[in-house]
């Protein structure tokens, strides 16, 4: 049996630490929910920030709540080219030796020393789904999409979490390359064919 | 033996017909060469145009010479999203029922009825290379890239031409998804695994 998987495209976004949130918006500030995301507990906030590197600015970048331990900005390579930086491919939270930027809020701006990454393509699943699929946290698999722009994505990281439901997350470049603009479907290929 | 292939990334660009070239730049105008391209006889021109749809404009889009039979604008899906249109995946020259736009030159602008496409991912090769690889014009194959962002591109069209040398052409979304910004390498997979 083929294992189908939902694919969701993540546009560029920002996760903020409590400290950075308060530095930008003021002490005790709480993000306003715009809409819930499929990932349990996460939400797109009404607030957006500008990301500045030198003279270049990406405006209106959505904040994703709730707050995290560390501030992290997830960009596509297209975004990184616009900012004239290289955004290294990293799993979430792995931000050592990544570029920093100035984050521009409505009234205040702050400088972050690091945190700009290209999110490593990944799937989320809960322990029950992982067991059924024979997956372990951190494992690399492949996922194939269909249609005229069909692609097999290799080196897809498996991330197992209690709050997760089976879903693949790609950035906008990866989605566009596969002609998937918002949501799509793929087929899990367990053997990762990457070199 | 594995068949390696060079990969070149094509940014958005415009091919102009003689008629449209003269409508924008004046009678008898000739494009100025900026640099030669790998495709024999083709060159990036010094001239760029704006592409306007409604209120949205993509500025500084490079013209590729020499002139062609029909005007054609090759965009990535990222570009198409910025213009709020759908650019259908088409092989070069297949522009019936595709969106049009206003092309803005330095002094004059013209309206094209159609011609905006997303170039179907393809490889070029000459007849000798095609014979060696067992390829025929129009055949669909797969090409795999390496590294952390490894991808296998399916439905890659084979285009055989006397003036061609073996090379794969991807747009910026496809290149970015595979972490290839300008040039890279891939491996030809003869069986096209796409559904």
Short account of what is shown:
The structure is a homodimer of 195-residue chains. Chain A has 195 residues and is mainly β.
Task: Note down, in words, how this protein is organized.
2 copies of one chain form a homodimer. Helix content of chain A is about 15%, strand content about 45%. In chain A, the strands form 2 sheets. In chain A, strands 2, 3, 4, 5, 6, 7, 8, 9 and 10 form a 9-stranded mixed β-sheet that branches. In chain A, strand 4 and strand 5 form a beta hairpin. The longest helix of chain A has 8 residues. At the A-B interface, helix 2, strand 13 and helix 4 of A face helix 2, strand 13 and helix 4 of B. Strand 13 of chain A pairs antiparallel with strand 13 of chain B.
Number of helices of chain A: 4
What Rg of chain A do the Cα atoms give?
Answer: 17 Å
Overall form of chain A? globular
Largest interface chains and counts? A-B, 29 and 29 residues
Helix and strand sequence of chain A: EEHEEEEHEEEEEHEEEHE
Structural class of chain A: mainly beta
Percent strand of chain A equals: 35-45%
Distance between the termini of chain A: 26 Å
Oligomer kind = homodimer
């Amino acid at each position: 049996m083929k294992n189908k998987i939902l694919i969701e495209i993540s546009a560029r976004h920002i996760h903020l630490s409590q400290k950075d949130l308060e530095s930008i918006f003021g002490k005790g500030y709480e993000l306003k929910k715009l809409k819930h995301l499929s990932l349990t507990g996460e939400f797109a906030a009404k607030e957006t920030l500008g990301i500045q590197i030198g003279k270049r600015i990406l405006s209106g970048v959505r904040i994703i709540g709730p707050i995290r331990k560390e501030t992290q900005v997830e960009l596509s390579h297209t975004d990184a080219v616009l900012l004239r930086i290289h955004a290294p491919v990293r799993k979430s939270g792995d931000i050592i030796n990544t570029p920093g930027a100035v984050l521009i809020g409505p009234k205040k701006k702050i400088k972050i020393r690091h945190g700009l990454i290209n999110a490593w393509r990944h799937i989320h699943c809960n322990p029950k789904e992982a067991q059924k699929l024979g997956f372990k946290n951190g494992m690399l698999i492949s996922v194939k999409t269909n249609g005229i722009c069909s692609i097999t994505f290799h080196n897809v990281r498996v991330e197992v979490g209690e709050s997760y439901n089976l879903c693949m997350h790609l950035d906008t470049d990866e989605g566009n390359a596969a002609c998937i603009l918002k949501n799509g479907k793929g087929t899990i290929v367990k053997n990762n064919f990457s070199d």
